[in-house]
Amino acid sequence: MAGNAKASALRALLAKGEFILAPGIYDGISARVADRMGFPALYMTGYGATASMLGLPDAGLATYSDMVGRAEMICSVIDTPLIADADTGYGGLLNVQRTVRGYEAAGVAAIQIEDQEMPKKCGHTPGRRVVPAEDMVLKIRVAADARRDANTLIVARTDARTAHGLDEALRRAKLYEEAGADIIFVESPESEAELQRIGKEVSKPLLANMVEFGKTPRVETARLKEWGFDLAIYPGLGFSVAAEAMRQAWQHLKEKGTSNDMIVPQYRGMHELMGFPEVWEFEKKWAQV
């Protein structure tokens, strides 16, 4: 499925009212595993991408080039529409234009931009600062105008809740709706009551971040849909269970001196997952006789 076709497919699912459940992916292996699972969309997590590329925290250290390259690689190995974290747009208005066009060219279906100051921080960590709402409104307008395909979706995220309260976050959400965002993302609500209020007051399609170990209660999709949400992302689930599985496996190896009899399950069929059968077919076809 081409990049524009993926955006069109994601937009059509939202228009039909189908709830979009998107697991967080961050590298080639996680992308290929999730792509086989039948999810309507996948989410490229900035936390996971930064951690897997740089071994560093999601604190504004990954550059535009880092992230657009990771998005392009992921899009090249999946058929599922990708929602991708683009942080603050990596600078001013001209940077936002470049980011949107670069992510589009990479094959991304929906591009997420947030209203934090640079350097940004992970959405469930302290010390986040937001730009004036008017600055973010301009970024959204530029992002919407920069699209080469009208089907590409712009996700506007506000981080105002933690430092400025829910009223300010909702005020910004409404401004971002009017500015042309296709999807609204109010980061870090701190209770089910707050989630319900967000669902009542936001008109455009609404994204919930069901992050592991964060400030927001994790709520099953049926209730999120009932409260007015249209998408839910699980950005931390994949890398947190992968890291713990590796820790357990390597602990076993250290203690036992072997990988035999490990309780931790191993993925069977890695060759097939990574596309080795296609390589073998290619080599067979073009083998020298």
* Spatial shape: globular
Unreliable spans are none
Question: What is the CATH topology assignment of the largest domain?
Answer: TIM Barrel
Strand order of the largest sheet: 1-2-3-4-5-6-7-8
Distance between the termini: 36 Å
Looking at CATH, the homologous superfamily of the largest domain is: Phosphoenolpyruvate-binding domains
Strand segment tally = 8
How much helicity do the residues have? 40-55%
The Cα radius of gyration reads 20 Å
The helix/strand series, from N terminus to C terminus, equals HEHEHHEHEHEHHEHEHEHHH
Model description:
One of its GO terms (molecular function) is methylisocitrate lyase activity. The protein is an alpha/beta fold and 289 residues long. It has two domains: 3-236, Phosphoenolpyruvate-binding domains (TIM Barrel, Alpha-Beta Barrel); 243-285, no CATH class. The chain contains 13 helices and eight strands. The protein has helices at residues 3-16, 28-35, 46-54, 64-76, 93-106, 133-146, 160-164, 166-179, 192-201, 221-227, 237-256, 270-274, 276-285; strands at residues 20-25, 42-44, 82-85, 110-114, 153-158, 183-186, 206-209, 231-234. It has an eight-stranded parallel β-barrel, surrounded by ten helices. The longest helix has 20 residues, at 237-256.
